[in-house]
Design brief:
InterPro entries: MBL_Glyoxalase_II (IPR051453), Metallo-B-lactamas (IPR001279), RibonucZ/Hydroxyglut_hydro (IPR036866)
Keywords: Hydrolase, Metal-binding, Zinc
Number of domains: 1
Number of helices: 6
Order of helices and strands: EEEHEHHEHEEEEEEEHEEH
Cofactor: Zn(2+)
Distance between the termini: 30 Å
Organism: Cellulomonas edaphi
Strand order of the largest sheet: 1-2-3-4-5-6
Protein name: MBL fold metallo-hydrolase
Structural class: alpha/beta
Length: about 240
């Protein structure tokens, strides 16, 4: 199994291509400006893409999903509770995104414009496939996604957003968790944006994150990788 990562110039959001032994692959989190590198890697290595996965609906992780899904001919998968964010990526972020629905004048739009991308150029993917419930309370059971040669467990992990999810799989026999903005090395994602909830995050950290096997490699949405054993020992939120 192979793993290839691209870091977006906006907020350093990580995009990862995970390649199965049969050369099928999935892409986790398509942030701003990653499409060209991902498509080039897929073509260079003669891969068979089957899906793009979003750990949550914030636009720094979903900006390129429309372009990338179209280029690769694949659907986007994300939790149902975050699907609404695809239609108004800035307005659903509160003041980080803009002062009103569809406002493109906030800090995130400015950060996107600063790297030479027009904030008005965003388009959602045509084929969106959701899992879980769009309910705003509680936590859904795991969803198993059979994607080419990869078996991915989507585990609902609300708190940063309503539909934040971990994607769990084995890479060469070792457990890996793509944690998005739920868990970072040494810290966690913020809960003060619309849809965030500190109490739900605390429950997620206790019941979902801390329950993962200690050897699990943590691949967060921003920053360096870690593992659960290290985070249990040093992360003050765990």
């Amino acid at each position: 199994m192979e793993v290839f990562a691209v870091v977006s110039p906006v907020f350093g959001a990580r995009c990862t291509v995970v390649v199965a032994d049969d050369r099928s692959c999935v892409v986790v989190d398509a942030g701003v400006g990653v499409t060209e590198d991902v498509v080039a890697y897929v073509r260079e290595h003669d891969l068979r893409p089957v899906a793009v996965l979003a750990t949550h609906g914030h636009v720094d992780h979903t900006w390129d999903t429309g372009a990338l899904c179209e280029a690769l001919g694949v659907p986007l998968h994300l939790h149902a509770a975050d699907a609404y964010r695809l239609d108004d990526p800035f307005g659903t972020l509160g003041l980080l995104g803009g002062a009103a629905p569809h406002d493109r004048g906030g800090p995130l739009a400015q950060a996107i414009a600063a790297v030479g991308v027009d904030p008005a150029a965003y388009r959602p993917p045509a084929d969106v496939r959701t899992f879980g419930s769009d309910a705003t309370r509680g936590r859904d059971e795991d969803t198993v996604l059979e994607l080419g040669g990869l078996r991915v467990v989507a585990r609902h992990a609300p708190g940063h957003t309503e539909g934040s999810s971990l994607y769990l799989l084995d890479v060469d026999g070792e457990p890996v968790a793509f944690t998005g903005d739920v868990l970072f090395a040494g810290t966690i994602g913020r809960t003060d944006l619309p849809g965030g909830d500190g109490e739900r995050m605390a429950t997620t950290l206790r019941d979902v994150v801390a329950a993962l096997p200690p050897a699990t490699l943590v691949v967060p949405g921003h920053g360096p990788t870690s593992d659960i054993a290290t985070e249990l020992g040093r992360n003050p939120y765990l």
